[in-house]
Every structure is written in C-alpha cells, then in structure tokens.
Amino acid sequence: MKLFLQLVAFAAIAFIFAACGTTKKIETLKPEPNYSTDIVYDKQTSYLNLPVEVSVADLQTQTNKYLNGLIYEDNQIEGDNLMMKVWKQALIAINENAGKLEMVLPLKIWVKVRYGIEKFGLSAYDTRELNLNGSIKLSSLVAFRNWKLTTNTQIGGIDWAESPSITIAGKNVPITYLINPAVALFKPKLGKMVDDAIAQSLDIKPFVLSALDKISKPQEINPTYHVWFAMKPLELYTNQAIVANKKISVVMGMKAYLETAVNAKPTISFDKNKLVLLAADKLPDDFNVSIASVITYDNAAVLMQQNFEGKKFESGSRSITVTKTALWGKDGKMIVELGMKGSVNGNFYLTGVPAYDSTKKEMYIDQVQFVLDSKNKLLQFGDWIAHGTILKRLKENCRYSVNEQLNQGSNTLKTYLSNYEPTKGVKVNGYVTGLSPKNITLTPNAIITMITASGKVAVSVDGMK
Fold first, then answer.
1. Closest of 270, 199, 93 to residue 463, by C-alpha
2. Is residue 258, in this structure, part of any structural domain at all?
3. How far is it, in rounded angstroms, from Cα 114 to Cα 109?
4. CA-CA-CA-CA torsion for 349, 354, 357, 362, nearest 10 degrees?
5. Is residue 372 a part of any domain in this protein?
6. Could you give phi then psi for residue 451, rounded to 5 degrees?
7. Number of domains the chain is built from
C-alpha cells in the first residue's frame, strides 16, 4: 500500500510538471516556402502636366533655315512702273515682348523703276535700276492648333538705309511714291511667308510623340526583384500657347495609365498613332503612381525580433521568451517562425495575412494562428499558449515599422521627379504629397509593397531638340 501511494504521488508530480512547464525541446514540422508565380499589377490613372517649350532663340534659328534667299519677285513693270526682287539680306532677329513675337527682317531690294511723261498719245520713258537696303518690322500673335504653333504676323514699316531716290539732271528725285505701293503689295505675302516658315519650324507633334514613345517603354526599375514600371498615354489636352521669358510654352495635360508590375514586364503599350489631342479650358493635374517598396524577409525578421527583445510572455506560473524570428511566404500567407524557450522550448510557426496599419505606419500579420502541427504539439501542454493571452501578445508583436521603406519609396520617386531626363530634350519634374502602402506581395526573395503616391508631375519637352 505504501509503495502504491508513492507511485501515485510520483505520477501526480509528473503530471503537474508536464502541465506547468517543461524543459524538453518540442520538435515541430517546418512549413516549406511556396510562392505564387502570378504577375502582380498595380495600375493608376493619372493626369500629368506636359508643357512643351521652345526658346525664342531656337525659333529664330529654325525660322532662318526655312526663310532664305530670294523671298519675293515681281517681273511685271506694267501697271505700277516697277519691277522688284527681295532677298533676305541677313538673319531674322526674333524677340518676345508683351506676349508677342517681334521680328526684324533685313532686306535687300532690287527695283527697276520706269519714269517719264505721256502727252498727246506719245510716251517718253526711261528706266533706272536701284539696289536698296532696309529692315522691315514684324509682330506676331501665337496660337496652338492641330499640333502646330501658328502665328498671325502683321507687317510694320520699313526702315531704309537710304531714302529711295534716283538722280535726274544732277538732282536726287525721291521715288518713295513708287516704292511704297509696291511694298504695300508685298507685305501680306511676306507675312504669310513668315507664318509658313514658323509653322514649319514649330510642328511639335513629332517631337512630343517621339518623347512620349521613349518614356512610355517599360523600365525594369529593380532588376533584383523584377520590378517594372510603364506608362501608357491615353489623351492629351491643350488650351493655349504662351509667349514669355524668352520662350514659347504650349500648356498641355496628359491622361495616362501608370503601371507597376512585379515578376514580369507590364502588358500596357503605347500606340502613338491613337493618341487623341483635345482642347480644354482647364487642365486636370491629379497625379497618382505606385512604386514598389522592397524589404527582404531577413530584414523584416530583424525588425520584428526587436519587438520581442527583453520581453517575457507569462501565463500564471508559466512563461516563454522569443529567441529568434524568421519570415517567409507560403500560399500567399506569411509564415512567422518563433524560437521559444522557457515553459516550452522549440521552434513554432504562426501563419497570417500581411497587412498595413496606417496609424502606426507598420506592417503587421493579421488573422494570426498557429500552423496546425505547431498548434497540435502545443495543445499537448494545454491551452495556455495556443489559445490564451500569450498568443494574443505574440500577435501584437508580429509587426514592424515601414518608415524606412516609405522613405526609400519617396527617395526613389524623387530620383524620377528631380530633373530626370529619360531622353534628350525631355525632363521630368514634380513632387509627391503622400505615400500610402497598398498591396503587399510575397515573392521568393522579399516582401514587396505597392506604395501609392499622389502629387504633381510635369514632363517638359523641348520641341526644337
């Protein structure tokens, strides 16, 4: 009987120790990583400012290429007693003033003047040839129509180097009364020639479409993690052309898809032949873009482990501490490996869905529960860890700050928004006002978070380059 009581007492003590705690290591099955190969897309519809700028100096250079040599010829002397040829003598000088283009065109004019008398049906005429030099002043209003900058040029007076005159009987006889009517006929033709030359110089369509074609091609912005970015322009809007600060600016807006993709090149493509140009009184500028932020599982685990440092998780007389943390993905969920010691020793596994806490700017694991094998092993020791307050506190600490990732995303955007030049003559500038994590994707090497940013962006195109 005494021996029986000793055996019962020993069994009771063993049971209490088994229930209250143990130093025996529990072996659990490690869930193997498993990742989806699906391509992750995040598409945003945005409006971008698209100012197209042409310096007046470049306009002057281009216009001089199109307007050269003999620009006017009148070979008929009948009617006005005058034949005339006009050449551009030197470079046209173009400046801007009060929202207009002001030009000075140096001219060389050859005239053949017929003069004399007609009386009683008899005529007595003589002719003289003159070479004249002068400068004509022009002023142009600028507009934008059908992809082209158009001008309406008005002709001012001519400043003659010398007053037009001929010598008769040793005297200078002014012939301005003959020259001025001929010049008056020439002026409208000259205005049209200047307008045509400027129109040829300022056909910005090929420059804009070429620039958009280049910047719309998909770019692999993070080769290590196969992160791509692409843009698909949909519509262009324009309302006016502005002449100021020694340049001509066409104020345009663009509606576009901005797409970030993980695991493959984006599928959107830009067909420049289908881009529509529309007139608009007000240009929208709502800018939204997604940028992929990357953090490796190891780095995320280090950040999460900091939450467990120096903490003991207790339930009555039992307690555990977390000695290590590891993370990976499986079937779209996050696996959290926790190394524990104390009343329970071993590696145990939690599973949950990665989510974002916008208030604390932290990533956390939602819908947390023990992986089935870990849960079954722990239940052998009671519910105190599998269902109790310790599990709740473990859940609370399965999170890490993403401030650094947000800053990295912001800095990445700044790289592309600070005088970024994807191709010669095209520059991107702008700023973002907010960054907010959106979709979270688990890849074999890292946790990739799509961060949505808003702000304003301008893509400037120098149409003469």
1. 199
2. no
3. 16
4. 70
5. no
6. -105, 120
7. 1
Phi, psi of 229 (to 5 degrees): -135, 140
Classify strands 122-145 and 100-119 as parallel, antiparallel or unpaired. Answer: antiparallel
Token pair for residue 206? 């090929």
- Token pair 């009617």 is found at 79
**How does pLDDT run across 226-249, given as a tens digit for each residue?**
888 888 898 888 878 889 999 888
Question: Which residues touch 309 (CB under 8 Å, ≥6 apart)?
Answer: none
Non-local (6+) Cβ contacts of 317 within 8 A are 20, 21
CB 452 within 8 A of CB 406: no
Give residue-wise pLDDT tens across range 301-358.
999 999 999 899 888 888 899 999 999 999 989 999 999 999 889 999 999 999 998 8
Question: Are the C-beta atoms of 133 and 161 separated by less than 8 Å?
Answer: yes
Which pLDDT score is estimated for 177? 67
More confident residue, 386 or 333: 333
Tell me the C-alpha distance between 429 and 455, whole Å.
Answer: 11
Q: Hey, is 187 helix, strand or coil?
A: helix
pTM of the entire predicted model: 0.67
Query: Considering the domain boundaries, does residue 172 fall inside one?
Result: yes
Q: Looking at residue 314, what is its pLDDT? A: 87
Q: Which CATH number is 165's domain given?
A: 3.15.10
DSSP code for 35 = -
Residue 379 forms part of a structural domain: no
Total count of residues recorded for the chain = 465
Residue 82 is part of which domain span?
Answer: 56-201
The Cα–Cα gap between 66 and 81 comes to: 31
